[in-house]
Amino acid sequence: ALLRGAFAFFQTYQGEWISQRVAYDLRNRIYDRLQRLSFAYHDRQQTGQLMSRATQDVEAVRWFIHMGVLRAGYIFLLLIAILVLMAVTNWKLTLVAWAFLPLIAWRSTVMALSLRPLWMKIQEGLARLTTVLQEALTGARVVKAFAREKHEGAKFQHEAEALFEDSYRGSRIQAVNSPMMTGLWLAAIGATLWFGGREVVNGNLNIGELTLFLLYLTMLNMPVRMLGWIIMISSRAQSAAQRIFEILDAESAVKEKPDAIEIKDCRGHVLFEDVSFGYDSISPVLKRVNLEAKPGQVIALMGPTGSGKTTVVNLMPRFYDVTSGRITIDGIDIRDASLVSLRRAIGTVQQDVFLFSATMRDNIAYGAVSASQEQIEAAAKAAHIHDHIVSLPDGYDTWVGERGITLSGGQKQRIAIAHRLLMD
């Protein structure tokens, strides 16, 4: 009893610590990997899918480590101990009782093979449900503007119903497996009673030994029941781990060289030499583009929608890599430069400005942690947003809301311009 109590304490305390530590490391590795992957990767992914892998899939792995791994160890040790005790008591009865072990192993394998693809489908269903919810919340203003609440509700209900059906199928498999495992264990008891009774009648075994042996066999009841549950959560954890490692093993299309050059005192001489680029291999956006921008020169790119104006800007900080040709800044091929120094040397204000859920000050000074209040205000004045900020009740401490939702499009652009001016 003392040994079981000590093991229960170890299982609860250490199991929780180990599982939380693994989850902590996994979440950090996923986040770090997502930060380092190029735009090309994020263009192909849905935000809700990535969020699901960093939360729900990690939790599935954590739960298995906390509840499954240590319990599996407990079951293994218990089985070894009981096997030794049974063999010492009567080796013939041991062979009879354990003859059902291959059947239990076979049934466990069948269950695992059935559950793993189903759990993969369930995890993907959870990710789709998260994606629908995330898009509906992010685009709540658009949904309401076009009175599409019922349509979005139907989309969410469709994904929720599909998830319910898959989860119900998993429950049915477990419901069928549990009595079968119990039935095999009862069959082992029945066979042991039959063979042991004959041995008692023949004088080869006494009642005390048979009773003791049956007591050992009864102790296997809980481990056999737990085995099916462990198989279930291990199948889910394997499916979740596969989805997690799809992120961790992903290769970035934009890589920094080990001996990358640090760009210092950038003058701003930009040169495009026979640059070609396409977001896929089928539809090229740029073909053999040649462009020179000298320091201090102002250049306007004009053309119809989709002609590649934004692409030209996105290629300079290596958000994407050119398909052919090269881009140089002050004579340095941008592929030879370190990404941090390159992106600090280039200031861009995107068409779709993103602001963090923070104060005006924090958004302007994002990336410039050592900037003083005077420098922040000077940048805001240069961007013609200072007067608006100081007119607010909280001034530079005003909370802009998620994605800057409380600001107009023009105000968000000016905040972004102030941020870039401060970085310079």
Automatic annotation (TrEMBL):
Name of this chain's protein: ABC transmembrane type-1 domain-containing protein
Location relative to the cell: Membrane
Domain ABC transmembrane type-1: 1-236
GO cellular component: membrane
Cross-referenced Gene3D superfamilies: ABC transporter type 1, transmembrane domain, P-loop containing nucleotide triphosphate hydrolases
The keyword DNA damage belongs to this UniProt entry's keyword annotation: no
CDD domains, sorted: ABC_6TM_YknU_like
Transmembrane segments: 72-89, 95-115, 179-197, 213-233
Entry's Gene Ontology molecular function annotations: ABC-type transporter activity; ATP binding; ATP hydrolysis activity; ATPase-coupled lipid transmembrane transporter activity
Keywords: Membrane, Transmembrane, Transmembrane helix
Membrane topology recorded in Swiss-Prot or TrEMBL: Multi-pass membrane protein
Pfam families linked to this entry: ABC_membrane, ABC_tran
InterPro entries reported in the protein's UniProt record: ABC1_TM_dom, ABC1_TM_sf, ABC_transporter-like_ATP-bd, P-loop_NTPase, Type_1_exporter
